[in-house]
Amino acid sequence: MRLSQLKAGQRGKVKGFESSELELKLMEMGCIPGEIVIVEQIAPLGDPISIRISGYSLSLRKNEAHQILLED
C-alpha cells in the first residue's frame, strides 16, 4: 500500500520508498521506516496531502506520497 492511497484520518507504518531520489529528502523530514504516519487532511483536488509523522505536520505532493510504501 502507498501513502497516497490513505484517506483523511487513516494511518499506516512506513515500510520504505519506491524512489531513491526522494528517499534521503523524506528521511530527513522524519519519514523513516517504522514510523507511524497519519493523514490529517487532503486538499479538495487531492494535492497536497497533510500528514502527521514524528510529532509534527508535513505537507507532501501526491506524487511524493505515492512513493512512500506502507506495511500491509
UniProtKB/TrEMBL annotation:
<dbReference type="InterPro" id="IPR052713">
    <property type="entry name" value="FeoA"/>
</dbReference>
<dbReference type="InterPro" id="IPR007167">
    <property type="entry name" value="Fe-transptr_FeoA-like"/>
</dbReference>
<dbReference type="Pfam" id="PF04023">
    <property type="entry name" value="FeoA"/>
</dbReference>
<dbReference type="InterPro" id="IPR008988">
    <property type="entry name" value="Transcriptional_repressor_C"/>
</dbReference>
<protein>
    <submittedName>
        <fullName>Ferrous iron transport protein A</fullName>
    </submittedName>
</protein>
<dbReference type="GO" id="GO:0046914">
    <property type="term" value="F:transition metal ion binding"/>
</dbReference>
<dbReference type="InterPro" id="IPR038157">
    <property type="entry name" value="FeoA_core_dom"/>
</dbReference>
<feature type="domain" description="Ferrous iron transporter FeoA-like">
    <location>
        <begin position="1"/>
        <end position="72"/>
    </location>
</feature>
<keyword id="KW-0408">Iron</keyword>
